[in-house]
């Protein structure tokens, strides 16, 4: 992490209901992201928003007819993965703002092309480990981590390159508290490390993050932070599509970001699932800015 930061917005929303996450990048910038980082002494290079050939907002509405749209989405995700790959090759720290969490299918594919053993810190109320066979909703934003581990729609598994983009042992879930039955089975079968809210409340967020960073830092040559805003308690994030009670407090989120910063291990980051249509007085977008400012 250095004094130069590149910011890339990704306007994607592949959810079936509560649309609006595609407007997240605009809301986060409006809440003062660039200005806030510059006031802390950073050189911020706003690369604007990824220019997709088609607007990835209105696809995948019909779960029963989803195969008709997979080819379109996959083509765009291929382009996005290549964009992110190049985005991460400069000397600037890559900061991505979404968009819903489905963008991680492409962002992690692109980021992983720059590392031999990428680690992922996945802050999320949900595991996003569903596949088409286990998903109760059919929403793509509930599947990206499974795809990056090599499970899901075959076309998605080819994004960036064929096969898994990250190893099971290189993923840590933090703040997870709402899991589908198929995801619980997946985690148990693959021995994925999870720090639930129960663990955070018992050990304290700083100790949890020290454990996370120690676990990944010993074996990974890069660490990517994927932060879904619904990991925070709904009191702090009214503008998310899938709020989940009893979440991480904003103060704990800030402590977590400071702990990551002090480790000097982070190589890239993304913040997703801000829906300004659901937000109240820009509270969710402003809290993204607070988290990012403390991450740097």
Automatic annotation (TrEMBL):
How the cofactor is bound: the record states: Binds 2 manganese ions per subunit.
Q: In the UniProt record, does the keyword Manganese occur? A: yes
What Gene Ontology terms describe where this protein resides (cellular component)? cytoplasm
What the entry lists under Gene3D superfamilies is as follows: Ureohydrolase domain (3.40.800.10)
Where does this protein act, in terms of pathway? Answer: Nitrogen metabolism; urea cycle; L-ornithine and urea from L-arginine: step 1/1
**Where is Mn(2+) 2 bound in this sequence?**
124, 126
Read off the InterPro entries from this record: Arginase (IPR014033), Ureohydrolase (IPR006035), Ureohydrolase_dom_sf (IPR023696), Ureohydrolase_Mn_BS (IPR020855)
For this UniProt record, give its keywords in alphabetical order, as a comma-separated list: Arginine metabolism, Hydrolase, Manganese, Metal-binding
- Tell me the GO BP annotations in alphabetical order: arginine metabolic process; urea cycle
Any single Pfam family the record assigns to this protein = Arginase
Instruction: Please give the family membership noted in the entry.
Output: Belongs to the arginase family.
Q: What name appears for this protein in its UniProt entry?
A: Arginase
Source organism per entry reads: Iocasia fonsfrigidae
- The gene is rocF
């Amino acid at each position: 992490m250095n004094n130069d930061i590149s910011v890339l917005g990704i306007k994607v929303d592949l959810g079936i209901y509560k649309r609006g996450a595609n407007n997240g990048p605009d809301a986060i910038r409006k809440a003062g992201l660039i200005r806030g980082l510059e006031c802390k002494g950073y050189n911020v290079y706003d690369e604007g928003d990824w220019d997709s050939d088609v607007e990835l907002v209105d696809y995948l509405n019909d779960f029963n007819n989803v195969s008709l749209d997979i080819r379109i989405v996959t083509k765009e995700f291929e382009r996005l993965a290549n964009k992110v790959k190049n985005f991460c090759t400069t000397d600037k720290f890559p900061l991505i703002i979404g968009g819903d969490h489905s963008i991680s299918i492409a962002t992690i594919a692109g980021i992983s092309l720059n590392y031999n053993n990428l680690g992922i810190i996945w802050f999320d109320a949900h595991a996003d480990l569903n596949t088409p066979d286990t998903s109760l909703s059919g929403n793509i934003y509930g599947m990206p981590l499974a795809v990056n581990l090599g499970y899901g729609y075959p076309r998605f598994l080819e994004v960036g390159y064929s096969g898994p983009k990250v190893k099971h042992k290189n993923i840590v879930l933090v703040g997870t508290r709402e899991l589908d039955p198929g995801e619980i089975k997946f985690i148990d079968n693959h021995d994925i490390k999870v720090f639930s809210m129960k663990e955070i409340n018992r050990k304290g967020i700083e100790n949890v993050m020290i454990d996370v960073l120690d676990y990944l830092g010993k074996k990974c040559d890069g660490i990517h932070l994927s932060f879904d805003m619904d990991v925070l308690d709904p009191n702090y994030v009214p503008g998310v599509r899938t709020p989940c009670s009893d979440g991480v407090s904003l103060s704990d989120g800030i402590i977590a970001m400071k702990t990551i910063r002090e480790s000097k291990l982070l190589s890239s980051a993304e913040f997703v699932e801000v829906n300004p249509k659901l937000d109240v007085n820009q509270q969710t977008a402003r809290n993204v800015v607070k988290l990012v400012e403390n991450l740097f």
